[in-house]
Amino acid sequence: MNTTGTRYREADGEPGLRVGRLPRLLPQRPGGGPASWAEHRARYGALPAPGDDERCRDRLIAEVGRSGLTGRGGASFPTARKLRAVAAGRDAPVVIANGTEGEPASAKDKVLLAREPHLVLDGAVLAAHLVGARQAFVVVHEAVREIVDRAAAERRQVHRDGIRLKIRTGADRFVGGEASALVNWVGNGIPLPTATPPRASEHGLHGRPTLVQNVETLAHLALIGRYGADWFRSLGTPAEPGSMLVTLIGEVHRPGVYEVGIGQPVGEILELAGGPAAPLGALLIGGYFGTWAGAEAAWPLPFSADGLSALGASPGAGLIAALPADSCGLAETARVARYLAGESAGQCGPCVFGLDAIAGALADLAGGRSFRPDLLRRWMGQVDGRGACHHPDGAVRLIRSALRVFGAEIDRHAQGWCCGSRPPGVLPVPPRRRP
Amino acid sequence: MTSAGARLRVDPIACDGRGLCAEVLPELITLDDWGFPIVGDGEVPPGLVAAAGEAIRLCPLLALRLDRPRDRRAWTR
Predict the structure, then answer these.
(1) Contact predicate A191/A171, CB 8 Å
(2) CATH topology for A11-232?
(3) Strands (DSSP E) along A81-150, which ranges?
(4) CB half-sphere exposure, A67, CA atoms < 13 A
(5) I need a surface site. Which of A84, A210, A282, B60 has the fewest CB within 10 A?
(6) What is this model's ipTM?
């Protein structure tokens, strides 16, 4: 088996994994259910095991760099740079695979873990080898915990990874997936962000250099380790190579998780879900920290950071929510803003008080009770960038885009009208937690 | 120890909005609508370095600090 990473196995002979073909991460399997170890190995082949050979590790990290893989958790940070930073640490490093997916609208990490748990575990193992870690924590949403536990147990019986895999359930809150909160949760049982710097890559779990990677990123890593950078780059765009998982919700015929090449047109992606089930007004792109865009404007654009930049949007964590034309975007956004305010970790004043005030003002605006977009803008300016983590910034990004895209609606609300003929609910919001 | 090029930083988790810093250093620190300090991102001018040190000493929660360029890492925002 090739373990150098510079030559890679010719993937063309592998069913389902041809150069330039989808799917990569989500195999079509009759009957559904998670892929067993045997099915997983039959489909993907063996994972390279660089062991302690430093030259081999460096070559594989260079291959990851050449692949152009970036984080699929929303921030799109180059994976090879994180690997290098953690590998350079003085203390024994540790890996944390982030499958918490606390965002209520997003399902791609849960679906990936439910269908191909071994690919994620492969990625966690390979990442641990690459940075010189002996153990990897895999933190997953409780909905898929059992599946991942079973996969890890199955794996221990039939295979020697050389890395200790520890499965954990993520904290049940939105902010729990933020990197410093995740480190704090695994280390101390506290699901709250900590002040940065220092970053986890330098000073993370118990002070060790810590690689925090989204589970989808790790799945891609496991494939790059097998088939190499050129194979990976045979999908996507030259600047943003590879495929990504997207969650499609709202007014489409078959909501669900799909895998697309980065840069595929937005409309083509929605057609994967059977296309719009009613005339669309707007799309929420990226996630609850994402950006609203007019459906017509977004339709022909490539789903990539470059392609969506004209609308101030980016693929983020891969969500596209389709809002029908007869739903009120302001009301939808007000509900999510109230949810996000409630999900503040409660540590930073501007986030605690500011998001609450902003959510209140937005609800008043959406409900036609008062009309103070100037105050809303002032508060958003005072909240943006002023937390220890990016929670307030993300919420503000969403609301700013709503004021931009639903501007005409704001005027109508001021005159006592609303375009919505059905109650809001396209964007899922869990029941409010007890105070 | 030089303060050239230093910037004021607030630890937003430690900060409780007591507001003493804005009293001592209104040139660089204002308060938001909820009483939490908004610190300018620019360098502290030489004439205000002493006042900045006073604001840091007065903070009962030790939430204010001066970052010198050599403390700064590429990723610090």
Answers:
(1) yes
(2) Rossmann fold (3.40.50)
(3) 94-99, 135-140
(4) 32
(5) B60
(6) 0.87
CA A352 remoteness from chain centre: 24
With 90 as the cut, is the pLDDT of residue A172 above it? Answer: no
Spatial separation of the C-alpha atoms in residues A352 and A385, rounded to whole Å? 13
CATH fold of the domain at A329-414: de novo design (two linked rop proteins) (1.20.1440)
Q: Which residues of B19-31 are buried (b: 16+ CB within 10 A; e: fewer)?
A: ebbbebbeebbeb
User: What is the arithmetic mean of pLDDT over A272-301?
Assistant: 97
Residue A125 backbone dihedrals phi, psi, to 5 degrees? -65, -45
A350 touches chain B (CB under 8 A): yes
Query: Domain spanning A243-324: which CATH class is it, in words?
Result: alpha beta
Q: What is the mean pLDDT of residues A315-335?
A: 96
In a domain, B42, yes or no: yes
| Cβ within 8 Å, pair A197-B13 | no
Over residues A378-424, the pLDDT tens digits come to: 999 999 999 999 999 999 999 999 999 998 888 888 888 887 888 88
CA distance B22 to chain A (A): 15
pLDDT for A4: 37
- Cross-strand bridge partners of residue A139: A98, A168
* pLDDT, tens only, A5-52: 333 444 444 544 777 788 999 877 766 789 999 999 999 999 988 777
Residue B69: helix, strand or coil by DSSP?
helix
Domain that holds residue B65: 7-71
Between residues A363 and A423, the one the model is more confident about: A363
Q: What is the largest CA-CA distance in chain A?
A: 70
Specify the pTM. Answer: 0.92
Flag whether residue A387 sits within 8 Å of chain B, measured between CB atoms. yes
Cα(A94)–Cα(A117) distance, rounded to whole angstroms? 20
Q: Is B42 on the interface with A (CB under 8 A)?
A: no
Is B67 inside a domain boundary?
yes
Q: In what order do the strands lie in the sheet with A135-140?
A: A164-169, A135-140, A94-99, A210-214
Contact B12 A387 (CB under 8 A): yes
The residue-averaged pLDDT of A281-299 equals 97
CA B51 to chain CA centroid, Å, is: 10
Domain assignments of chain A as residue spans, ordered by start = 11-232, 243-324, 329-414
pLDDT of residue A1: 36
Q: How many domains does chain B have?
A: 1
The span from the CA of A3 to the CA of A19, in Å, is 20
| CATH for B14 | 3.30.70.20
A329-414 has the same fold as A11-232: no
**CB neighbours of residue A239 within 10 Å:** 12
pLDDT at A280 over 90: yes
Tell me the chain A residues in contact with residue B75 when contact means C-beta distances shorter than 8 Å: 197, 199
